[in-house]
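Example record for the data management plan.
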Amino acid sequence: MTPSTTVVLELSLDGPERDHDTRVTFLGQRFRIVRRGTSGDLDAATELVREWAPTARAVALTGIREAQAAGRYAGPADAARRRITREAGSTPVTEGDQLLEVLQEWAVRRVDTELPGHLTNARTVVLGGRNHERTTRILREHTDNIELADPLLRLDLSDRLHANPVVGLAADVLGEVGALPARMVPYALRTRLLSPARQAAHAMARRAARDCDVLVATYAELAGFGLEDLAGKTLITSAIDDHRLAELGDRGVDLVVDITPQPFAVVVEAAVLEALMIASVDGNALTDDDLLDMIVGADLEPRLLHPNGPRRKSRFAFVIHPLSQQYFRNVEPLRTVSRLAPQPVMDLVEKVVAYSPPFTYSHVTGITSPTGAEAEGWLITVGGTPREMMAHDPEFTYRRLLSAAETARKLGAQIMGLGAFTKVVGDAGVTVARQAPLPVTTGNSYSASAALWAAHEALHRLDLVEVGADGVLEGNAMVVGATGAIGSVCARLLAVAGARLWLVSPESAKLLALKALIEREHPGTEVHVATSPDGALPGMDLVVTATSGAGKRVLDITAVKPGCVITDVARPLDLSAEDVAKRPDVLVIESGEIELPGHVRMRDIGLPDGVVYACLAETVVLALEGRYESFTVGRNIEWEKVKEIYRLGLRHGMRLATISGVNGVVTAEDLEQVRALALAARAGTAPSDLAGAVP
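Corresponding structural encoding:
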């Protein structure tokens, strides 16, 4: 060893398995780092300090908590610290607390910077105690779903008890602080006093850890809790070597956040890095500026490690509700009641259920995008049928949706979607999105896109109008309610498909503006305008109804061409079941459903396995993309968002799976029947002359 080499001793109460004697260069200086583990033997540690203190410039004290967790050291931590520090004399002893204050916060902030939203609302379990205090404090900026294994921290006794000076002394007796009253009580007695609370807290933390998204723990704490299945979890820890990283990967960990930078070939603790820094300033106390300069000068930073390759797993929630009393036949314990009870009783049940608190209907798993992103979610049911929602003021439904949002938050969801009638009530999600503890989307952007997607597919499969290989529609299309938010989006989508367009609305000025916009976006597109659909209706191959008529007559279905496809995107629907039944030679579509990517596991929602409504698919797409935002709220649907969600859906493997009408999913047999009836009707009755029908 040359005289210019400075010695730093790492004295560990943990085992000798990771002992080493290594020479490194740090901040331009040469150091010899010597690690010695004593397996909890405090006398042996004291002897080592006596041996090395004369030559070591600084001592890094590590492994006290690890030795306690492994049962190697049964004494109080403070006693070990005081004894080692006393034996070291003038040689400074550090556990790395000053550096850890920076590194713990920095590690969390780096995760949030490089993986935006990853920690948002994450279900988090913190093993250990105050050694993770800074990490926990910064995590609270991103999530309230934090479980603490330490019983005193779990109950927040430190702050609550010490707020009262008299009760604070009692807290000291329990060992919460190292003040004189606490030291007057034997450590063994304090341990026995706290043992039941610790066991209960550990049991609760162990249960929470099974379902959590983020674990905060040293490797020894993790081993002490006996947690084997860590599939899909993020672990915030320290000093992870290649062997431990591989083991964590085998146990399913997605992301390991090592808060301790590792600038050397050998893995070191934060205390060692701080000891090197202290040695660099000749054993003097480190100022904050010293610490910052050395972190920058040594190019130190926490590590984000992916033992199984980079992966993103997001969490969503989606609100569903019964569409009618028929729904009660599928849910226990209402199944038996709904079968036997007379109608007045069922009406009463419907009213009572509307007041019931939200509950989780299904856990949705197995969603995997071709990009590698994954998502899991929960379907949360609120009790009101559309009839009950409409019978109350919007605040009634808002309160239940906000309660569902709180349930979603506790489950760890990062975004929540509104399904069926919940996205129609009141201001269509605006109030709920403003007050909910997580972003909310109605899914209407993807619903509009999927409805036109389904209509285009239906035209292609009916084969009654020319649809080119490039998707261009060689036919006539009408949008009734074209100046509305959904109607204008549908009109612009149809222009992309190349259809000759008829735009219908009583708002003449808005019609003219929309016509000009479409002609500017798609030069050469044939666009007609009218205040009533009646004149041109018989010549249409495709009709989209998107009004807010709420029960008013929108069009005369008996006047449409045989084989016409009508897409009803209005909510409530523009066409009743009675209207649809009048024309079995016409296909009326309410929606297009989306098949999710992966091997999806979910309870029955009335669709084929793995298939969901487009509004739910929008929520899933946003989760897979890591876009935790209120994407679609209110009654105005933005054209750019409709295009964007369609593009993102394709990127994540979404595809049109089914076409639905008033009687549910449209089958191949249904399509064939409509086609046969349409051809027969056309053979018997010549279609109207379109040229003469145009006003």
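Summary line stored alongside the record: The first helix runs from residue 42 to 52.
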